[in-house]
C-alpha cells in the first residue's frame, strides 16, 4: 500500500489537444480519493497517467516513494478497473482472475489460493466456470473488481466502473466498493462524472475542470463551500442557486430584495454572487416576515420532498427544497426568504470564492 | 369495453378470411418473383455457362453453326492443353498461373503484414494530423492504375524492376496497403482498447498485448480484408500487361488475353484457361463468405 503524489502534471497530445493543463494531487495511503468532473475535464487522462497507460508531457508521479514516470504499467504495482470491464473474452472467470498472477509467475498453489480468496470476497463462486459473455453487467464488474483484488496491488485505480450498470445495481456496487476499500485499506483513486457517487464514496473529492483542479476537499467541504462557481454548479441536485448580490448596510441583498446574512471579511469593491443551497431557502405565505414576494413557477414532487422553482423578480429563478407538508400550487403568490447561515460568496469576474 | 368486444368479434372472421387470400396473393407473387429472377439469372449466367460449355466441347463443336447447346461430345482436352504442352512438359500458360499465385499471394501477405499493424496504430494512438494522413493514404487509390502505369513503367525500367515478379508484388502491395489500413481500422476500432490496457497492467508490453489479445479478435476481419486484397492482385490486368514482357514473369490475366488475337483463336483453350483462373478466387470467397459480409457491412450499424 502506498500514497500517490502527482506533481504539476501536464498532458498534451501530439495533435495539440491539451487533456491535462496542470494537476497537483496528494493522495494519502489508504485513502479513497475521487476525481470528479464533466467529460473532457482530464480526470481519466490523469488516472491513465498514474496507471502508466499514458505518458505525461511534464510533471512527476510518485507511488509510495517510487518515482514511476518511466516505469511501464506492469511495474507500478497497481490494478485498474475499467468502464467496460475488459475481461478477457476467451477466458473463464477463474482464468481471468488467475491471469495477472500467472503473468507474474506465481506458484500454482498460491494462484489457486488467491483466486479462491478473491472469489469468496466478491461472491463469485457460481460464476467461476463461465466466460464473460455469459455474465450480466453487474457480474462482469464484480469479476473485474476481483481481478484487481487478486494482485494485492499498492493502489486501485477505478475508471468510471459503475457507469454501464443500471441505477439499482449501481447503488449496490457503490456500497460494495466502499465496504471493500474500507476492509482492505488499500489506496483507491476513483474517477467518476457522477456527483452522487463522488459524495457517497470519497474520503476526499477533487473536482476537475478543463484540465485543472478546481477544488479538493471532503464531501462536506465541497458541498458546503464550493471553491468556485463551477464547483457550486456541479455539486448538489438541484445545484446551488447563484444569486447576484450587493453588500448594503451590513446585509447581502439581491436585486429582488432577498436578504442574506453576509460572511465576515467580504471585499467591498466588486460584484458578488452568493451560492445558496436549495435547502437554505424557504417558501412562505406571501408577506411573511423577512420574505420577498415571489411566484411559484413549478413544483417538482419527489416523494419525500418538493422542489419549488420560484420567480422572485431576479434574472434567474431559484430552486427551493421544501418538506412535503408545505404545499403551494403552481402560479401561487408566495414569499421567499433565506433561513441558513452566511452563504459562500464568489467574485463575479474571477468566479472564485471570496468569503 | 364495447370497443374491445367489437374488435374481438370482428377479428375472428377476419383471421379466417384474409390469410388464405393473402397466401394466394403471396403465392402468385412468389411465382412471378421466382420466374423473373430465373430469367435474370439465366441472362447473367449465360456467358459463364457458355464458357463452361466451350471449355468441354471439341473444337469442331465450338465452331459449329448453328451452335450446339446439348448434343456435343464432352472432352477435357482443353484443360489438359492449359497445363501440358503438345510436346509434353508444362505450358507457358501454366507458368503464368504459377506466377499469379506467387505474385498475388506474396503481395497479399505483405499488404496484411504491413497494413494490420498500421491500422492498429491509427486506431489506438493519437497521431499528428491523423485524418489528413488517412485521407492521403486513401487518396493513393483515387487514380485508376491506367493513369499511373506509364510513369511507373519508366521508373521501373530505371531501377530494374521492369519485367520482374518483385516489381509486380511491390506495386500490388502498394495498392493493397491503403485498402488494408482503411478496412482494418474499422475492425480495430470495434475491439475495445481496454483489453490492451488491462493486459499491459497485467505485465505485458504494448506489442504483446496487441499480439495476444487484439489480434485473435481481429482474425475474421483480417480474413475478409486479405480476400479482397487477394482478389485485386489476382485479377489485376493493367499493371500486369504493361510491366511484364516475358512469359517467365507474365501473370495469368495478360497471358489469357494473349491467347486471343493472331490468325486463329483456340476458344476452347481460352475458355478452359479462364475457368482454371476463376476457380481459386471463387472457392476462396466461398470459404470466407461470412467474414466478407461482415467486412462489407461493418460500421453500418452503430453499436
From TrEMBL, chain A:
SMART domains: AAA (SM00382). GO terms for biological process: carbohydrate transport. InterPro entries: AAA+_ATPase, ABC_transporter-like_ATP-bd, ABC_transporter-like_CS, ABC_transpr_MalK-like, ABC_transpr_MalK/UgpC-like, Mo/tungstate-bd_C_term_dom, NA-bd_OB-fold, P-loop_NTPase. One of its GO terms (cellular component) is ATP-binding cassette (ABC) transporter complex, substrate-binding subunit-containing. Keywords: ATP-binding, Cell membrane, Membrane, Nucleotide-binding, Translocase, Transport. Residues 4-235 form the ABC transporter domain. Signal peptide: none annotated. GO terms for molecular function: ABC-type transporter activity; ATP binding; ATP hydrolysis activity. This is ATP-binding cassette domain-containing protein.
Automatic annotation (TrEMBL), chain B:
Residues 1-27 are annotated as: Disordered. The chain crosses the membrane at residues 30-52, 97-122, 134-156, 168-188, 209-234, 267-288. CDD domains: TM_PBP2. GO terms for cellular component: plasma membrane. It is found in: Cell membrane. The keyword Transmembrane applies. It is a multi-pass membrane protein. Residues 97-288 form the ABC transmembrane type-1 domain. Keywords: Cell membrane, Membrane, Transmembrane, Transmembrane helix, Transport. GO terms for biological process: transmembrane transport. InterPro entries: BP-dep_ABC_trans_perm, MetI-like, MetI-like_sf. Belongs to the binding-protein-dependent transport system permease family. This is Carbohydrate ABC transporter permease. It comes from Herbidospora galbida.
Amino acid at each position: 500500500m502506498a500514497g500517490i503524489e502527482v506533481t504539476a502534471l501536464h498532458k498534451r497530445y501530439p495533435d495539440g489537444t491539451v487533456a491535462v493543463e496542470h494537476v497537483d494531487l496528494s493522495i494519502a495511503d489508504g485513502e479513497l480519493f475521487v476525481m470528479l468532473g464533466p467529460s473532457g475535464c482530464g480526470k481519466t487522462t490523469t488516472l491513465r497517467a498514474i496507471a502508466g497507460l499514458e505518458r505525461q508531457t511534464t510533471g512527476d508521479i510518485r507511488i509510495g516513494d517510487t518515482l514511476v514516470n518511466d516505469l511501464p504499467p506492469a511495474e507500478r504495482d497497481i490494478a485498474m478497473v475499467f468502464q467496460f470491464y475488459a475481461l478477457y473474452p476467451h477466458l473463464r472467470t477463474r482464468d481471468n482472475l488467475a491471469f495477472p498472477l500467472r503473468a507474474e509467475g506465481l506458484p500454482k498453489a498460491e494462484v489457486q489460493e488467491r483466486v479462491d480468496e478473491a472469489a469468496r470476497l466478491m461472491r463469485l463462486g457460481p460464476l467461476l466456470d463461465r466466460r464473460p459473455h455469459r455474465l450480466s453487467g453487474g457480474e462482469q464488474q464484480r469479476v473485474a473488481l476481483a481481478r484487481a483484488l487478486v494482485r494485492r496491488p499498492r493502489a486501485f485505480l477505478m475508471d468510471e466502473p459503475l457507469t454501464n450498470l443500471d441505477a439499482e445495481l449501481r447503488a449496490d456496487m457503490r456500497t460494495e466498493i466502499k465496504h471493500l476499500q474500507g476492509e482492505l485499506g488499500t489506496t483507491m483513486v476513483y474517477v467518476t462524472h457522477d456527483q452522487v457517487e463522488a459524495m457517497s464514496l470519497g474520503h476526499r473529492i477533487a473536482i476537475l475542470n478543463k484540465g485543472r483542479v478546481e477544488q479538493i476537499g471532503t464531501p462536506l467541504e465541497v458541498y458546503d463551500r464550493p471553491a468556485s462557481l463551477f464547483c457550486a454548479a456541479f455539486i448538489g441536485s438541484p445545484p446551488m442557486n447563484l444569486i447576484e448580490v450587493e453588500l448594503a448596510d451590513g446585509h447581502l441583498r439581491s436585486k429582488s430584495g432577498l436578504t442574506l446574512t453576509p460572511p465576515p471579511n467580504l471585499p467591498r469593491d466588486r460584484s458578488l454572487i452568493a451560492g445558496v443551497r436549495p435547502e437554505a431557502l424557504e417558501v412562505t405565505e406571501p408577506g411573511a416576515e423577512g420574505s420577498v414576494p415571489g411566484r411559484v413557477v413549478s413544483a417538482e414532487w419527489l416523494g419525500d420532498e418538493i422542489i419549488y422553482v420560484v420567480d422572485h423578480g431576479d434574472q434567474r429563478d431559484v430552486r427551493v427544497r421544501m418538506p412535503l407538508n408545505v404545499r403551494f400550487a403552481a402560479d401561487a403568490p408566495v414569499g421567499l426568504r433565506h433561513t441558513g447561515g452566511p452563504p459562500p460568496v464568489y467574485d463575479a469576474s474571477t468566479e472564485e470564492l471570496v468569503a | 369495453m364495447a370497443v374491445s368486444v367489437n374488435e374481438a368479434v370482428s377479428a375472428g372472421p377476419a383471421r379466417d378470411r384474409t390469410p388464405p387470400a393473402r397466401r394466394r396473393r403471396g403465392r402468385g407473387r412468389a411465382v412471378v418473383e421466382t420466374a423473373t429472377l430465373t430469367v435474370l439469372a439465366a441472362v447473367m449466367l449465360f456467358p459463364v455457362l457458355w464458357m463452361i460449355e466451350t471449355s468441354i466441347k471439341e473444337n469442331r463443336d465450338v465452331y459449329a453453326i448453328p451452335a450446339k447447346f446439348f448434343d456435343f461430345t464432352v472432352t477435357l482436352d482443353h484443360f489438359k492443353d492449359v497445363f501440358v504442352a503438345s510436346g509434353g512438359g508444362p505450358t507457358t500458360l501454366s507458368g503464368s498461373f504459377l506466377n499469379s499465385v506467387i505474385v498475388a499471394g506474396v503481395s497479399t501477405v505483405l499488404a496484411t503484414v504491413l497494413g494490420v499493424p498500421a491500422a492498429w496504430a491509427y486506431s489506438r494512438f493519437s497521431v499528428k494530423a491523423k485524418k489528413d494522413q488517412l485521407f492521403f493514404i486513401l487518396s493513393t487509390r483515387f487514380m485508376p492504375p491506367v493513369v499511373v502505369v506509364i510513369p511507373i513503367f519508366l521508373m521501373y525500367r530505371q531501377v530494374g524492376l521492369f519485367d520482374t515478379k518483385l516489381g509486380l508484388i511491390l506495386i500490388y502491395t502498394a495498392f493493397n496497403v491503403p485498402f488494408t489500413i482503411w478496412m482494418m481500422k474499422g475492425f480495430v476500432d470495434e475491439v475495445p482498447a481496454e483489453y490492451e490496457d488491462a493486459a499491459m497492467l497485467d505485465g505485458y508490453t504494448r506489442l504483446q498485448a496487441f499480439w495476444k489479445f487484439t489480434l485473435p479478435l481481429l482474425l475474421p476481419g483480417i480474413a475478409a480484408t486479405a480476400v479482397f486484397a487477394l482478389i485485386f492482385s489476382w485479377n489485376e490486368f493493367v499493371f500486369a500487361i504493361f510491366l511484364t514482357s516475358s512469359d517467365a514473369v507474365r501473370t495469368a490475366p495478360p497471358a489469357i488475353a494473349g491467347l486471343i488475337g493472331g490468325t486463329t483463336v483456340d476458344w476452347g483453350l481460352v475458355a478452359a484457361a479462364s475457368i482454371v483462373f476463376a476457380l481459386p478466387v471463387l472457392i476462396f470467397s466461398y470459404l470466407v463468405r461470412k467474414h466478407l459480409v461482415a467486412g462489407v457491412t461493418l460500421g453500418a450499424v452503430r453499436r
